[in-house]
Amino acid sequence: MPPLIAPSILSADFARLGEEVRAIDAAGADWIHIDVMDGHFVPNLTIGPGVVKALRPHSAKPFDVHLMISPVDPFLAAFAEAGADIITFHPEAGPHAHRTVQAIKALGKKAGISLNPATPAKMLDYLIDEIDLVLVMSVNPGFGGQSFIASQLKKIAAVRRMIEASGRDIRLEVDGGVDPATAQACVEAGADVLVAGTAAFRGGAASYAANIAALKGG
Ligand code: DX5
Ligand code: ZN
22 by DSSP, 3-state: which? Predict the structure, then answer.
């Protein structure tokens, strides 16, 4: 099975975001990945719920909202109401990751946990039975265009084993420095969803379909 591709609109043209989302959707994106940064949990500022809401009419594909913010809980309802389908957060962003997962599910959304490069897979031990998605960060969150950290392949494999052992339907997504070469390594390690910013949006709209096809393995 080829992986699902979730282009990160962080690499889109922000002056034409609606059009960019329509173009990447038409080019074969499976999900739309939206990177939310607060200038506090990560050293960059990006998108809030108002932009998610404005983009919602531009695609029927799942909105995969990656929260790199602290605190998380006060903003969950706003992102859910704005049209998020999957809400992923970093357990380091607050003291009560289990409670945050419950809050996302209570809003009727799928819940994801994101693991920073230094965060062990073991962090999932007492969350795996509750969650819908694991997002392994293969760069330190904050910016697009960084290089893939190869040590994360071992973590992807470890998380895949945990998912199989759980017997649950959990997506394993990888984010950061994904290009056609690293995409293949991620899939071989056990990933089934790949986020790509730079590699999805390079070359402008005429290239998007070929970019996505290359990420899926050609
Ligand atoms: C990084 C973000 C990523 C990033 C991916 O903090 O979570 O989604 O935009 O961009 P590329 O594919 O360029 O590494
Ligand atoms: Zn992301």
Answer: helix
Catalytic-residue membership of 30: no
The minimum-distance atom of ligand 1 relative to the CA of 66 is: 7
CATH of the domain at 93: 3.20.20.70
155-177 per-position pLDDT tens digit: 999 999 999 999 999 999 999 99
Q: Which whole-number Å values give the CA distances from 161 to 124, 126, 127, 147, in the listed order? A: 12, 15, 15, 25
Nearest CA to ligand 1 atom 6: 141
pLDDT in tens, 29-82: 999 999 999 999 999 999 999 999 999 999 999 999 999 999 999 999 999 999
Atom of ligand 1 nearest to the CA of 146: 14
Supply the range of the domain harboring residue 136. Answer: 4-215
| Residue 37 CA, ligand 1 centroid: distance in Å | 11
**Spacing, Cα 162 to ligand 1 middle (Å):** 25
pTM of the model: 0.98
The angle subtended at Cα 128 by Cα 3 and Cα 91, nearest 5°, is 95
